[in-house]
Specification:
HTH-type_TetR-like_transc_reg, Arc Repressor Mutant, subunit A, 2 domains, Tetracycline Repressor, domain 2, 9 helices, single chain, Homeodomain-like_sf
């Protein structure tokens, strides 16, 4: 077996050390972003300071400043972090619900509505809504949020087309998608203090039936259009 020369070992050691440092830096950054997200949920955007984030993340003030020299630099990074997280989580929740080679059923649609409800109850959604609400009266935050929100809406609709192939070519896709999202968001942000689970279940049941009707009508309309050509 060939022996590793001292020269080769000297070259490999710094590379290994550099790789570990990069990994450690990435882990610290992620811990800070996760901590910021938790702070938004627990104490709100206005009360979240860099010191509180650092404490929650378990990092020193110096490490915090190394990664994020200002409060707004943290906010920009968290917004980008949540943007990617929310798209990924939606894709994971909706994967395999709508199978293109099988008939779409009411059960499939109801399952998608349930997943949409789960989606708006995830920490990423709650944290993002806190930032969105704060941006209404914070011009600096709004300047960061607006382009991200526009990009999210665009990507979100494209993602809906990819995960719901039965709806993909139907004009009803966008309004049906909006109906689900607006209703789920409104329900998640409302203060239902009594019989919350039972009320949510009824709304999900009704919405699934409405979506099934919209789908059936859209299919009939499309078939009529195609036959008329």
């Amino acid at each position: 077996m060939a022996k590793t020369s001292s020269k080769e070992a000297a070259v490999k050691a710094p590379k290994k050390e550099a790789g570990w440092q990069a990994e450690k830096s990435a882990m610290t950054r992620t811990a800070i972003l996760d901590a910021a997200m938790t702070c938004f949920i627990e104490i709100g955007y206005a009360n979240t300071t860099t010191a509180l984030i650092a404490n929650r993340a378990g990092v020193s003030r110096g490490a915090m400043m190394h990664h994020f020299p200002s409060r707004m630099s943290v906010m920009k990074a968290v917004i980008a972090y949540l943007h990617e997280m929310r798209l990924r989580e939606y894709m994971e929740l909706m994967a395999d619900i709508d199978t293109p080679d099988a008939q779409l059923t009411n059960k499939d649609i109801r399952n998608s509505v349930e997943m949409a409800w789960n989606y708006v109850n995830m920490p990423s959604f709650i944290a993002y809504q806190e930032l969105l609400g704060a941006s209404r009266t914070d011009p600096e935050l709004k300047a960061v949020m607006d382009p991200v929100e526009k990009d999210f809406e665009k990507q979100f609709l494209q993602m809906a087309k990819s995960v719901f192939p039965h709806w993909q070519k139907l004009p009803a896709l966008e309004p049906a998608h909006d109906l689900v999202q607006f209703l789920m968001k409104g329900m998640a942000m409302s203060q239902m203090s009594t019989r919350r689970n039972a009320r949510v279940k009824k709304v999900i049941d009704y919405l699934a039936l409405i979506l099934m009707e919209i789908y059936d009508e859209s299919i009939e309309s499309k078939l009529a259009e195609d036959s008329a050509k």
